[in-house]
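User: Let's play a game. I give you a shape written as tokens, and you guess the letters that built it. Ready? Here's round one.
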């Protein structure tokens, strides 16, 4: 049978352990580097589906975009340079750099895939 003393010790051990763990947990944070490489610049393959010069947008069927956490899909992008809308046409195969600019997904750079 348990004596009151062993029960008390068990309760104290249970009560103190989590406090010790959380104190340790708070210690490591300041030294830890962020781990995320700043803006890993990676080009994404895609195929132009539609160019809308009036709206300044291009629809691209693209592969997964890791740095945006986006799976492969077809979607509309803005473009950094309006002139690109004259150079792009449906079925063009491109590799492009996409990122958020003022909350809108934007093509910042692209190159044609021959
Ligand atoms: Cu997308």
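Assistant: Ready! My guess for every position:
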């Amino acid at each position: 049978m348990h004596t009151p003393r062993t029960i008390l010790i068990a309760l104290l051990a249970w009560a103190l352990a989590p406090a010790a763990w959380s104190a340790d947990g708070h210690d490591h944070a300041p030294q830890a580097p962020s781990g995320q490489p700043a803006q890993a610049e990676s080009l994404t393959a895609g195929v132009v589906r539609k160019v809308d010069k009036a709206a300044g947008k291009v629809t691209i069927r693209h592969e997964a975009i890791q740095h945006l956490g986006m799976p492969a899909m077809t979607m509309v992008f803005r473009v950094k340079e309006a002139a690109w809308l004259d150079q792009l046409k449906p079925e063009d195969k491109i590799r492009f750099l996409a990122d958020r600019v003022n909350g809108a997904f934007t093509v910042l750079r692209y190159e044609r895939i021959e």
